C-alpha cells in the first residue's frame, strides 16, 4: 500500500471519494471510535452523491464529533494505492473546533477522545499516521503539542 499526496488543484475534484478532517479542540487532537469498532480514527467519511467534497468534510465533522462551530482548511488531496494498482482519492482537511455539542442521534460514533498526539489503537494504522504527519508539516505544528 502506498499513500500519495497532491496539491489541491492537481486531481479532479470528482475523483475524491473521502474527506478526512484532522481536528483540534482546546489545543488537543480529537479522535473518534465507531460504535462497531474498538479502534480510533481521525474524523471523516465517504462523500455522498453530488455532494461537494468540502460539504462532505463539514457534514462528517458534525456527524462524528458534534462540532457546532469550526474552521475548515483544505490541506491536500491524498490517495491510497493498493498493491493491485487501484487508487482511491480523498481530501485532507484541518479544523479548529470552537464549540462542540452532543453527537447527533444518527451518529455511528460511540466515543470521542482528546489527545496530544496520535492514539496507539488506530483503525487504519498504515494510513492515519501518514495523514497526520503530512498535515503537521503543512501546518507547521510540532508533534509534541
> Would you identify the regions where 5 or more consecutive residues have pLDDT less than 50?
none
Output the structural class: alpha+beta
Give the percentage of residues in beta strands.
35-45%
End-to-end span in angstroms? 29 Å
- What is the alpha-carbon Rg in Å? 14 Å
Query: Mean pLDDT, nearest integer?
Result: 93
Main sheet properties: 8 strands, mixed
Report the total helices: 2
- Secondary-structure element string: EEEEHEEEEH
Work out the helicity level: 10-25%
Q: How many distinct beta strands?
A: 8
Shape: globular
Structure summary:
With 145 residues, the protein is α+β, with helices and mostly antiparallel strands. It contains two helices and eight strands. The longest helix is centred in the middle third of the chain and has 13 residues.
Structure description:
Helix content is about 15%, strand content about 40%. It is α+β, with helices and mostly antiparallel strands and about 140 residues long. Strands 1, 2, 3, 4, 5, 6, 7 and 8 form an 8-stranded mixed beta sheet that branches. β2 and β3 form a beta hairpin.
